[in-house]
Write a structure and sequence with these properties.
Blueprint lengths: L1 H34 L4 H4 L7 E6 L10 E6 L16 E5 L1 H4 L9 H13 L5 E3 L7 H11 L10 E5 L14 H7 L9 H15 L6 E2 L21 H25 L3 E6 L5 E4 L2 E4 L15 H19 L4 E3 L18 H16 L3 H6 L1
Parallel strand pairs: 1-6, 3-4, 3-5, 5-7, 7-10
Antiparallel strand pairs: 1-2, 8-9
């Protein structure tokens, strides 16, 4: 009897605690929803705000110092503009646009700005809204959930450096990183209290951000012997074509967003090193996609085929005069520290080419207005 009574008391106590905790969490959720300023949504987009990180990069490429400093401002942007209202050009893309492991002055945005200022004089500012892992799915969310929160942000020109994270045709939705970001809170991901937990984690990690840490990416040698794929997978053409049509619809929406914000847009294709010519034949790395298709593995040739379809879409949707083709530009292995991410020399080539294209177009006059 005494044991049964004790068990019943514990059960009642557990119920009381559960009910109390539920009421407490529900109350906190209600308060957070009533006081939400909108920025919690950007946490699900992997937008880093008011953070400074130091990274060791000596293992990736030669630089004047063994570490670089990575800074994001209070709005999640990376630039040296005095305010968001001074931003003339806003670049969008994934990690190849973010360039987390390049110093600010080495990014292609900084190179663009220096080149444009050299030609037109001071007054032009270029900002970086690239986010690791973002594809066009994430870019659309940036237009709806992020940029409207930035006061006085009204760039005259958007630069869409896209395609790299959209080329994996084994996925019909957001990229793996975007899925992971959205799923960090599991079934509770839409709750404001879950976003507070994510913010707290980011804040605590930021306390260590000024201590140099090893860059998460690594240098890849890209030996000829690594390029063993000689033919496309059987279903690559079909799956890549379907993927390209979805990409087309999202790109149209991005261009519409730019126009709705009173801005022009240019599209930039991106180079990569997942294929190369070996003994006179184009070959690919054996594995290119993180996810494998049923019964297939997809390598560099499959990736390159899919990417070229996306670039055809960009040419059709953006227009030949608003397309900067870096896929076919002159890059060498020293311009990359892995298959897609550029060293400072690669970023310098990208920045100069984009600046040159802008300078030689009517867009330059619009930037100076």
């Amino acid at each position: 009897m005494r044991s049964t009574s004790w068990t019943r008391s514990l059960a009642y106590l557990a119920i009381i605690w559960a009910v109390g905790l539920t009421i407490l969490l529900a109350g906190a959720e209600l308060v957070l929803r009533l006081t939400d300023d909108g920025w919690s949504r950007t946490l699900r987009l992997n937008v880093v705000r008011s953070r400074t990180y130091d990274y060791h990069v000596a293992h990736l490429y030669e630089w004047q110092t063994p570490t670089i400093r990575y800074v994001r401002d209070e709005y999640g942007l990376r630039d040296d503009c005095s305010s968001a209202g001074d931003i003339d050009i806003l670049t969008m893309g994934g990690s190849t646009t973010d360039q987390r492991f390049l110093a600010q002055q080495a990014t292609f945005q900084a190179v663009m700005q220096r080149e444009l200022v050299r030609v037109a004089g001071p007054g032009i500012c270029v900002s970086n809204a690239g986010v690791d892992g973002h594809s066009t799915h994430g870019h659309l969310r940036a237009f709806s959930d992020w940029f409207p929160l930035i006061p006085r942000l009204r760039p005259k020109l958007f630069v869409f450096s896209i395609g790299i994270n959209d080329a994996d045709f084994t996925r019909t939705g957001p990229s793996v990183l975007e899925d992971e970001i959205a799923g960090r809170a599991g079934a509770l991901k839409e709750l404001q209290i879950a976003q507070v937990g994510l913010w707290l984690r980011e804040t605590l990690s930021g306390l260590w951000g000024r201590r140099p840490v090893h860059a998460g990416q690594k240098e890849i040698a890209r030996r000829s012997s690594d390029y063993t794929q000689v033919r496309l997978a059987a279903d690559t053409a079909e799956r890549a074509a379907r993927n390209a049509e979805g990409f087309r619809l999202r790109l149209r929406r991005m261009l519409a967003y730019a126009r709705a914000n009173g801005a022009e847009a240019i599209c930039v294709t991106q180079p990569h090193r997942q294929v190369r010519t070996v003994d006179g034949k184009k070959r690919g790395i054996r594995f290119a996609f993180d996810a494998k298709g049923p019964g297939n593995t997809y390598g560099g040739l499959d990736y390159d085929y899919s990417l070229r379809l996306l670039y055809r879409v960009m040419r059709e949707e953006c227009g030949q005069s608003r397309l900067i083709d870096l896929y076919n530009a002159d890059f060498d292995n020293g311009d990359f520290y892995d298959y897609v991410h550029t060293t400072p020399s690669g970023a310098r080539k990208i920045g100069r080419e984009i600046a040159r294209s802008i300078t030689n177009s009517e867009l330059m006059n619009q930037l100076l207005e």
